[in-house]
Specification:
Blueprint (H helix, E strand, L loop, with lengths): L1 E5 L3 H13 L3 E5 L2 H8 L6 E5 L7 H10 L5 E6 L4 H10 L3 E4 L4 H13 L9 E3 L2 E4 L4 E4 L2 E2 L4 H12 L7 H8 L10 H13 L6 E3 L3 E3 L1
Parallel strand pairs: 1-2, 1-3, 3-4, 4-5
Antiparallel strand pairs: 6-7, 7-8, 8-9, 10-11
């Protein structure tokens, strides 16, 4: 899942981004509304965590632009105000969910994951294929009943492959969904991660390389 965090309190923004990355999400961070509009014009995001009171361009206008463009991106709006009227107004602007500050990180993570599931064809909460069972919420992976410990990027790559339901996923698509914009697209990070993931999943290998196209399970 790829997420954009838009928050002008830099310490909070960076903390949220770090926490979501530990949950195997690809996260970009910006600190004002103008930068947010620039990013959504370039990258496809599953979820935007959007502070309402932003400098340069207000969060309300960012939400309006996302809706105007007809993007499938879901918006989790943050605000320091917990008034019901503010929540209603935010939802009417196009936000899909609303979270007042201060908030528990576990709740933010759960809400981001719930919104991420709504950006594509509905899938079961637990993904299963070829003897592999992956629970995104619990961050657990099993193969034939045996639990497998994965690093965040390995987990993210496996989740993307399972969500494709047998379709081929290119290295570029994996890079977009599992890494943030700071990753050099010319590195071999995808290939190395897939190799490590294959080793941890064990034999027989379930991740198939499709020459010239990408990978599938």
């Amino acid at each position: 899942m790829r997420v954009l965090v838009v928050e002008d309190e830099q310490l909070l923004a960076d903390a949220v981004a770090t926490g979501l990355r530990r949950e195997a999400m690809a996260v970009d961070v910006v600190y004002d509304g103008a930068a947010a509009l620039e990013r959504i014009g370039v990258n496809d995001y599953d979820v935007v965590v959007l502070d309402r009171d932003l400098p340069l361009v207000h969060g309300d206008d960012v939400a309006r632009k996302i809706v105007e463009l007809g993007m499938p991106t879901r918006i989790l709006m943050l605000t320091a105000s917990g008034d019901v009227s503010d929540r209603v107004e935010g939802l009417e602007l196009g936000a899909d969910d609303y979270l007042p500050k201060p908030f528990a990180f576990s709740e933010l993570t759960a809400r981001v994951r719930a919104l991420g599931r709504r950006t594509s064809v509905p899938l079961p909460p637990v993904l299963e294929r070829a003897g592999i069972k992956l629970d995104p919420n619990r961050r657990e992976v099993f193969r034939d009943g045996k639990e497998i410990q994965l690093a965040p990027k390995e987990f993210a790559v496996l989740e993307v492959l399972l969500r494709s339901e047998g379709a081929v996923v290119s290295a570029e698509q994996l890079l977009e969904k599992a890494w943030d914009e700071n990753t050099d697209p010319f590195t071999n990070v995808v290939r190395v991660t897939v190799m490590t993931l294959r080793r941890k999943l064990g034999e027989p290998a379930v991740i198939v390389t499709v020459p010239g196209s990408g990978y599938r399970i």
